[in-house]
């Protein structure tokens, strides 16, 4: 419990900053919606000139863009990018900081098992992300209800914005996995930005080609917002793959972490 | 009873040497010195004992329990002070100490206050703002606040001024009298001599010698460097027994001496000297002696 609270406190500031940033993006995007929907037709005309693949890659869908949910889904792509970086940063940082800040000698000479350390850290990560997501969803519903021009499906909005947590867990798992596996993590932000952007690009390519197989390699596309708007459900096969990857990365990390040599400097 | 027991403990870092077949034991209630030059394997051995790293082969027990299997249980009674202390930034000293205390199921508030007073440590400062010496003090209080039965110190004195070093040694002696066993690693011979009952000497990952400090003290090594006013005969010192590694360069003579110091002082009094240095030889020079004896 003491380790959990300590870690939670240590990442309090960064969690707050990331949460506020996510909310700021939501507010910024959604505040543009009234203006956008008024001139939607003009926008469409301009956008129509773009190549089809490009439009798909950046997440534009013409059928729905003028509706509030469609517009939100478009914005959500960039929120996801931001959220993924937050989660990966968190996982990578919290599991590599003992060796980076040389505090390993402090923590690992205490009467605790590695498993306890890891559980406490994971729970702290999880709590941070849950709090971020709660604040985010509240902000989404708040702003959307303010700028809406017609009725929308609250369930769809909840499912889309709630899928941020799923994506974050994926990148949290990946971050933890890398932190435990790599012998030394010197710069957290370089690794997390690099990895997240690589997956983001993969997601863009996968979106523009409609290749189902490629989609399994792009966690950004495991949840298809437009599919949710249409069917009000997730695509279970992708959800399952995502969940398995998350569990595998956490499980492997546990196993490696228990046997890992903690080196000095 | 042996508090610490090492049986052919070996650690390889890939193909690089860590330590090879290290065996020694530390008895209950003794202050055991562990000396060797930098990179000899002192820290590796200690990190193995604390299961920060795991052995390639061999085993070690603390309080009769295997250090790998019973690590958390053993660590309840261990206080550890690393050579370099880096603690979580952005914390006040008292917060860190309380965090440290929260791992042990006892009330350490009184002990923290007591230790901080002895070491003159300001508990309200932020750790970031502390000097190296003050950080070291945080480490000392942190390592002792739960009144451990075994205290492991890895080159603990670096950064402490002589006065604080003295206080720290007194503190250790007091804990020792109360029954704590101490493993004291260092590369400074004099502080080991001052504090320890027995020492193990490690070089290149291997134990060279385990000796009583008394024996080492009888082997009273001194390093002499003499600058003479005029040239003296080359063989002035070489015929004296106990003189090692004699070097004569112009008017400067240097050697390592072991034996009755009065003899050498009389010899020096016979000649006119311009300058004189008498120093503790560093470990390397002592080790040279150990190797020479082995051959």
Task: Give an overview of the whole structure.
The complex is a heterodimer of chains A (265) and B (295). Chain A has helices at 2-10, 12-31, 33-38, 40-48, 52-57, 68-100, 104-107, 114-147, 154-181, 188-209, 212-215, 225-231, 236-259. Chain A has 265 residues and is an all-alpha fold. Chain A has one domain. In chain A, helix 1 (2-10) packs across helix 8, helix 2 (12-31) packs parallel to helix 8 (114-147) and helix 6 (68-100) runs parallel beside helix 9. The two termini of chain A are 28 Å apart. Chain B has 295 residues and is α/β, with parallel strands linked by helices. Chain B has 2 domains: 2-217, 3-Layer(aba) Sandwich (Rossmann fold); 220-294, 2-Layer Sandwich (Alpha-Beta Plaits), CATH 3.30.70. In chain B, 33% of the residues lie in helices and 32% in strands. Chain B contains 10 helices and 14 strands. Chain B has helices at residues 42-49, 71-75, 93-101, 109-118, 132-144, 162-177, 189-195, 213-218, 261-270, 283-294, and strands at residues 2-13, 16-27, 31-35, 57-62, 65-66, 78-81, 150-154, 181-186, 198-203, 206-212, 221-228, 243-249, 252-258, 273-279. Chain B has a 6-stranded mixed β-sheet with strand order 6-7-8-3-9-10, sandwiched between helices. Chain B has a 4-stranded antiparallel β-sheet with strand order 2-1-4-5, covered by helices on one side. A 4-stranded antiparallel β-sheet of chain B has the order 12-13-11-14, with helices on one face. In chain B, strand 4 and strand 5 form a beta hairpin. The longest helix of chain B is centred in the middle third of the chain and has 16 residues, at 162-177. Chain B is globular, with a radius of gyration of 22 Å. Chains A and B meet through helix 1 and helix 7 of A and helix 2 of B.
